[in-house]
TrEMBL record:
PANTHER family from the UniProt entry: DEHYDROGENASE/REDUCTASE SDR FAMILY MEMBER 7B, DEHYDROGENASE_REDUCTASE SDR FAMILY MEMBER 7B
PROSITE patterns named among the record's database cross-references: ADH_SHORT (PS00061)
GO MF: oxidoreductase activity
Family annotation (InterPro entries): NAD(P)-bd_dom_sf (IPR036291), Sc_DH/Rdtase_CS (IPR020904), SDR_fam (IPR002347)
Pfam families in UniProt: adh_short (PF00106)
Family under the similarity heading: Belongs to the short-chain dehydrogenases/reductases (SDR) family.
Annotated source species: Wenjunlia vitaminophila
Keyword annotations: Oxidoreductase
Keyword Oxidoreductase among record annotations: yes
Protein name: Short-chain dehydrogenase
Ranges where the record places region Disordered: 271-324
Domain of life where this protein originates: Bacteria
């Protein structure tokens, strides 16, 4: 707990979900925290939540897809906080749907928000992290989807795979400068992010499977616990952390038996909605949720109750900007 006390920390995508929890965890360990996101209203609400817990926090509006904005964010944070010791790149988007209705634009959007956002954050932060008296720490949030491609999440998986490779390469190159880089690969977490994901094709059915899996206790992880483990990994300068037993099992199995895991994913894909089952117009989760009151819908809502509660706690109910 003491090793992070007094350090300056920056979290991108920090206005809600996992980013908000990472900021809270860092503040709880004595850090001076800056949270950045696109939406100023979400940032203000997030800051109020953090300050109600006694956190010292500042906010900065930033679109991580724009390198000039990221440069201004990093420079301003270092100036206001007297340096920069910890940076966590967390911003991104989630798009759910089959490739038949997801085109090149969706892949570009994912790469811009997830990979280029992580890249710009890294490039602009590293000069300051090298100057940190405590030894800089950088963490990039990947996903199990970047280690093992997930059907109907291909833009997300491709972008997260690039983030994981970036983190591993930077870890090797920056060690000589006293900077540690941690690649974080969470599995399913109960953050309420299903309300801001973009669903394409048969949006209601896509929302149903995604929100259900993300909310089941045996498959998904409590987000507060995940944030604690991530910050501990960053504090201890671990090069890589994979969260949830299911994600660790999947990553190991894919490493030793990729043909088997690919075939298993093929079976899973066949259970998902077909590309021709619905309109291609994307809907955000808050609008894609089924409105009927069938037994199946009631069962899904029961299965996702923990995720819905997480959404209430983690500032997920406000207007969306498309980022976590």
């Amino acid at each position: 707990m003491r090793e992070l006390n007094g350090l300056s920390a920056l979290v991108t995508g920090g206005s809600r979900g996992l980013g908000l929890l990472l900021a809270r965890e860092l503040a709880g360990r004595g850090c001076r925290v800056t949270i950045a996101a696109r939406d100023p209203h979400e940032l203000a609400e997030a800051a109020e939540l953090l300050r109600s817990d006694g956190a010292e926090v500042r906010t900065a509006v930033c679109d991580v897809r724009d390198q000039n904005q990221v440069r201004g964010l990093v420079t301003g944070t270092a100036r206001e906080q007297g340096g920069l010791d910890i940076v966590i790149g967390n911003a991104g988007i989630i798009q759910v749907g089959p490739v038949g209705v997801l085109g090149a634009r969706e892949f570009h959007d994912a790469l811009d928000s997830i990979f280029l956002g992580a890249l710009y954050t890294s490039l602009e932060s590293l000069p300051y992290l090298r100057e940190s008296p405590a030894g800089g720490r950088l963490a990039l949030i990947g996903s199990i989807g970047g280690l093992l491609a997930v059907p109907h999440l291909l833009p997300y998986s491709c972008a997260k795979a690039a983030v994981g490779t970036l983190a591993e390469g930077l870890h090797e190159e920056q060690a000589r400068y006293g900077v540690s880089v941690t690649a974080v690969h969470p599995g399913l977490m109960r953050t309420g992010s299903h309300l801001h994901a973009r669903f394409t094709g048969n949006a209601e059915r896509e929302f149903a499977w995604f929100s259900t899996l993300a909310g089941l206790p045996l498959l998904s992880m409590n987000a507060e616990r995940a944030a604690g483990r991530i910050v501990t990994a960053v504090a201890r300068r671990r090069p890589r952390v994979v969260l949830t037993p299911l994600a660790r099992t999947g990553a190991r199995l894919h490493g030793v038996a990729p043909v088997l895991t690919t075939r298993m994913n093929r079976l899973f894909a066949r259970m998902l909605p077909r590309a021709d089952e619905g309109p291609s117009r994307p809907l955000e989760g808050s609008r894609a949720a089924p409105r009927d009151r069938t037994a199946a819908t009631r069962a899904r809502r029961l299965a996702t109750v923990l995720n819905e509660r997480a959404a209430d706690r983690l500032n997920q109910r406000g207007p969306s900007t498309g980022t976590r």
